[in-house]
C-alpha cells in the first residue's frame, strides 16, 4: 500500500511539474523570441511563470531611466523586431491595462544561444515622468532607441521588476531620430542672466537662469537643426543672441554650455558668447565603482590653468585646463577621495583660489565647471569666481565646491582618536573629509537596529572618524549620536584594541547603525545609539563613527555611564539630593566652581556658581534625565539626576 501511495504521489508531482513547465511563456528563452512587427497594433502578453536562466544577460546600468533600477533578471520574456529605415523605434508598455512594473532592454545579438554575443543598445525601467496611461502601472516602461541599423534584427528583453508578474500590452512604433542634450547656463554676463533656448524656433527651455542646468533633453537628430539662445520671454528666435546650426548624431549624447559675454562693454576681457558642445556625454555612470569626472573651464577672466590633485597622494589628474575646453574631451575615472583644485597663472604661480571636491558618496558621473569672475570689479560686478559640480542625470542649480584646501579631521585615524569623558556633555564633531583605510575594522552587515552590526547594505567603513573613552566602574556605557545637532545617518562601533595601528588586534564590543525605534532627538532619524554592558572598568575603548553609504556632516557624540540612584548618593566631594527630584535640588561641593545643567539632548538649561552648597529650583524643568557638571581646574565632575 505504501509503495502504491508513493508511486501515485510521484505521478502527481510529475503531473504538476509538467503543468508548470507548460505554463511557461513560449518566448521564455531568446531563441524562441516572438517577432513584433514595427507599427503593428499593441498585443497583450503575460509573464506569469516566466523564468530566467542562471547566466542570462541583463543591463548592468542601475539607473531607472537609462538602465534598470535593479541589477539582475527574474521573469523574462523575449521578442525580436526589425529596425525601420530611419533606425529609430519607440518601445512602449505604458498602455491601458499594463498592470505591473515592467523593465525592457534592447540588444544587438550575434548568436541567440550565446549571451556573450549580446550587446546592450538601450534599456528602461520606468517611463520618464511616470506612466500616465489609464489603468496602467505608473512604473510601466517606455524606451526610445535610435541609431539602429535599418533592416537589422534586434532582441527585446521584457522583465518584471524584482520578479513582478502580470499582464502587459506592448507595442513598437517607428520613432523620430533624437539625441540627448544637457543644457547648462554658464554665461555670467548680467544681460543674459535669464534666456530662452529654442530648437528650430520651438521653445525647449523657458527662462533659463544663470548657473542652472537641465536634465538630458530630446533634440531632433539626423537632420540640420538650429539651436538658438534668445532673450527671456521670447516668442521666436528672430532676436537670437547666438545660433548654433548643426546635425546631431542619434547615437551620441551631448552637453552644451553657454559661456562668454554678449554685452558690448562692461566686461574685461570681452570673450565672445558661444555654446561649447561636448559630444561624448554618458547618460549612465561610466563605472560601477569609480567617478567619471569631466572638467570644463568657463570663467572668462580666469587664468588658463586649473590643476586637480588627489588630496591623499598628490597625483595630478587634470592639468592646464583652458577656457572653453572640456579637458581631454573625455571623462577621467577617479577613485573615492578628496581632490584639491587650484588655480595658477601661466607661470605656475598660485592665485590663492583653492577648492576641495570630496568624492565620497555613491560613484557617479560629475561635471566640474569654473564659473563667474576672478575680478568682478571690472566685469560689471558680476558673480564671483567659483568651482561648481553639476549632476549628470538631474537638472537644477550648480552645487558649489568647498572653498579652501581639503583638511581631514585630526581623528581620521584611530591612533589620533579624540578623547571622550564619560558623562560629559556631548562633543560636537564632523566626519567631513574623513576617509576609510582599505583594511579598516568594521562590524558585520546584518541588521540596522541591533547592537552588534551595521545595515547589511553598508558594512564597510568609508568615511570614519575615531574617539576613545575609559570605561567607568559600572562596566557599562551608552554611546550615542542620537542628539540634537546630528545631521546625517551615522553608524557607530566600539572596540577593545591591542594596538591602534593594527586592525587585527581590534575586538568588536558592539555596533549600531540606526537607533532602535528611530532617533527623535537628532535632525537625522537614522542617528545611532548603542548600549554596552560588557566593558572592563578602567580600560580604554575606541569608538568608530562612520557615515552610512558615504554620508558626511556634523554630529554630536556622547558617552554616558548608567548609574543608579544609590550610586548617585554615595558620599563624595560632589553630591546632589534628593534624586529623583520635583522642586529643589541641593548641591554640595567641597569648593567653589561654575556649575552647569544639561538636558538629555546636551542643551544647556541652567548655569550657576556653587560654593560649598547650593539649592537649585528645578520645578520648571520638564520631566526626564539631566546631567549636572562642576567645572574644576583640570577636570569635570558630572552626575545625573531625574526630574519627576
Whole-number mean pLDDT? 86
The count of helical stretches stands at 2
State the total count of DSSP E strands. Answer: 42
User: Which of globular, elongated, flat, extended, rod-shaped describes the shape?
Assistant: globular
Largest sheet: 5 strands, mixed
End-to-end distance? 75 Å
Rg is 32 Å
- Strand share of the residues? 35-45%
Structural class: mainly beta
* Weakly predicted, low-confidence segments: 1-22, 564-572
Placed side by side, the strands forming the largest sheet appear as 1-3-8-5-6
Quick recap:
The protein has two helices and 42 strands. It has 644 residues and is mainly beta.
Please explain how this structure is put together.
The chain is mainly beta and 644 residues long. Helix content is 4%, strand content 41%. The chain contains two helices and 42 strands. A five-stranded mixed β-sheet has the order 1-3-8-5-6, with no helix packed on it. Strand 22 (337-344) and strand 23 form a beta hairpin. The longest helix has 22 residues, at 2-23. The chain is globular. The N and C termini lie far apart (75 Å).
